[in-house]
Amino acid sequence: MNSEFLKPDGTPMIVNLAGIDSGDQTDLVYEFCANNSEWAIPVKGRPAGESNYKISSVNKSASNAHGMQLLLVSGGNYKDMIANRMRRKPGTNGAWMVYKGCDREYAEQVTAEHKINSKGPAGKNKLVWVPKTSHADNHYLDTEVYAFAVAELLGAYYAFN
User: Fold this and answer.
1) Which of 140, 147, 149, 158 has the fewest C-beta atoms lying within 10 Å of its C-beta?
2) What phi and psi, each to the nearest 5 degrees, are found at residue 140?
3) 24 DSSP 8-state letter
4) CA-to-CA distance for 152 and 111, rounded, in angstroms?
């Protein structure tokens, strides 16, 4: 993570912050983030809400990560933003674009969900993101959602909006 990446003009860049999904193997993720807190933050999904993300804290007292920041992400909000960017004309400001050699697995996973009407509590209809097919892998979509949230947290999202 401390390796430099070079922009086309030769300007070096390093990873400023990486969101690590803590929904699975939570204790391992918390420990990893505690040991790499200068560039890693645990991330967890939360239901769609008014805000795209919320900062909380790890409340596992037995963990080295106790008290460190936890990024709670409203995945549906970011999926909406990603879908809107995918609809933009390639090359326009804020359009979702992939490199020429993008593999099929990435493309399938990042488009593995769609938004449908679903009956919620009290019989109210609401739009929710669901897999297009049962058991469809969507790990790359989750990765993009968390990367988008971290970018927004750092203020980088607004530089390219």
Assistant:
1) 158
2) -70, -35
3) S
4) 21
